[in-house]
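Below is how a single chain appears once it has passed through the pipeline. First comes the sequence as given, then the structure the pipeline wrote out for it. We keep one example in the README because the format questions we get most often are answered faster by looking than by reading.
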Amino acid sequence: MNHRTLRKEEDFGIYVHWPFCAAKCPYCDFNSHVRSSIDESGWAQGIVRELEYVAALQGNARPLVRTIFFGGGTPSLMSGQVVETVLAAIARLWPVANDIEITLESNPASADAGRFADYRAAGVNRLSLGVQALGDADLKALGRLHNAAEAKQALSLALKTFDRVSLDLIYARPGQGVEAWRVELKEALAFGTEHLSLYQLTIEPATPFAALHRSGALVIPDDDLAAALYETTQEMTEAAGVAAYEISNHARAGAEARHNLLYWRYGSYAGVGPGAHGRLDLDGRRFATSTERLPERWQEKVARDGHGMTEMSEIAPADAAREHLLMNLRLAEGIDLAAYRARWQTAPDAARIAALADEGLVVVRDDRLAATPRGRLVLNSVIAALAD
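Resulting structure:
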């Protein structure tokens, strides 16, 4: 890869969406599709063409790529050759940081020693493993294809192969109480991964879980129990040295997911592949991009137009400022108000900040605004109060 050092404000990330799964989970509303056969070489070349289009939009002054993230779908269904092809294209089109973070999402059901070794050889240095639960009955209820033993075997393999590993779990599941979650989380923390993504189960529209929930066949914890589960999560992860740096993400100091920090700090990134979203800064203006969701239509559009984008719209500064605020307040570090004012020539209303501070929901220190632990429990309300 071609390496050089640029200023931090020029940092840039690339998200690559692989839309295929072996099966569709009933809670999932991501852009994922089940196909009996996949022309991997054709898909890799389509992604390369879309990368070339984004690079052309940026012209000659292309930013330093600090992070790359292969998400899905199930990227661990890809061969190492696809990953190698995509990474080679990125290195040809952009300058790449010496310490670049390259993450690939994996499901335990598709974990394989040879495949993991190929990813590592291609350049992947961080694996995010979607375990989701540590009990067989819970995994079956979530529609996962792996069992608990396979999840632990995949995690062991990941820890042997990659320097950096993240573990994903879903909690606030039907029938789950605080003590059961405490036992499960204690087991998860004992694995010793540097990073955990711990998500509360949410009922997304147009999913099988949504239909079951409407019918009363699926009952999830109420708000009080969900809050107790959240507080237990914060208490246990902090005690284990992997405190929350974002609402659902926990890491050892220095092991935060740099790619996700780029999102939450409102950086610039390209999204390529079916259904991917991006935020591009071009000539001092910020643009939202999105691509065709259906894989076959995306592929046809790339073959015809050189890209699969269905949206590339400029974000008005007021809307961008609101997005920036919304994203930053998810972080434990909060928002640097001086930098925010300099970037957008605006700031959250001081009286509203004071009112929220009086309620114990936010705190301001050294011109940095952050939600308190209480505030993070009702973060949507805090953001609404500050952003309107």
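The chain is about 40% helix and 25% strand.

See the next section for the split statistics.
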